[in-house]
């Protein structure tokens, strides 16, 4: 019997992590809003929290990296996450300007960003 490629299981686990990271992002943004922090300022904290949680969950669960996390590894992850955010927004803007409804533009942005971040995160964790 042929064994499936490692990246398939990683991609499935990556998809399971995404809603948890979203929940952290939204929860922090919501809580900061309740505390009277404007959304744009609260977004900085929510993104920081979601990147931190995403790093730990993807490292341990998605890619099953061994050893202790390092600051250098986290910095590379942060750059890759930032790239994903930029790709997400760029694709969203392009699809939105082309006249697609917002849900389609959001979905296109998320899919493009997921492809970029998954491949970058996979390279970071050595798999």
Topology:
Blueprint: H1 6-34, H2 39-62, H3 71-97, H4 102-124
Helix pairs in contact: 1-2, 3-4
Task: Explain what this protein looks like in three dimensions.
- The protein has one domain (6-124).
- α1 (6-34) packs antiparallel against α2 (39-62) and α3 (71-97) packs antiparallel against α4 (102-124).
- It has helices at 6-34, 39-62, 71-97, 102-124.
- The protein has four helices and no strands.
- By secondary structure, it is mainly alpha-helical.
State the shape. globular
Q: Beta-sheet strand percentage?
A: under 5%
Distance between the ends = 23 Å
Would you identify the regions where 5 or more consecutive residues have pLDDT less than 50? none
Question: How do the helices and strands follow one another from N- to C-terminus?
Answer: HHHH
| Count of discrete structural domains | 1
Task: Report the count of strand segments.
Answer: 0
Helix share of residues? Answer: over 70%
Total of DSSP H or I helical runs spanning 4+ residues:
4
Class from helix and strand fractions: mainly alpha
- Taking all Cα atoms into account, the compactness measure Rg is 16 Å
């Amino acid at each position: 019997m042929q064994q499936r490629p490692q990246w398939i299981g990683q991609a499935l686990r990556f998809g399971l992590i995404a809603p948890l990271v979203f929940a952290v992002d939204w929860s922090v943004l919501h809580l900061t809003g309740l505390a009277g922090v404007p959304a744009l300022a609260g977004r900085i904290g929510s993104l920081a929290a979601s990147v931190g949680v995403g790093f730990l969950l993807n490292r341990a669960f998605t890619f099953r990296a061994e050893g202790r996390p390092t600051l250098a590894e986290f910095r590379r992850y942060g750059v890759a996450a930032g790239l994903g955010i930029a790709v997400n927004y760029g694709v969203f803007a392009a699809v939105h300007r082309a006249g697609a409804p917002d849900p389609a533009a959001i979905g296109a942005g998320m899919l493009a960003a997921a492809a970029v971040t998954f491949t970058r995160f996979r390279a970071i964790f050595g798999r």
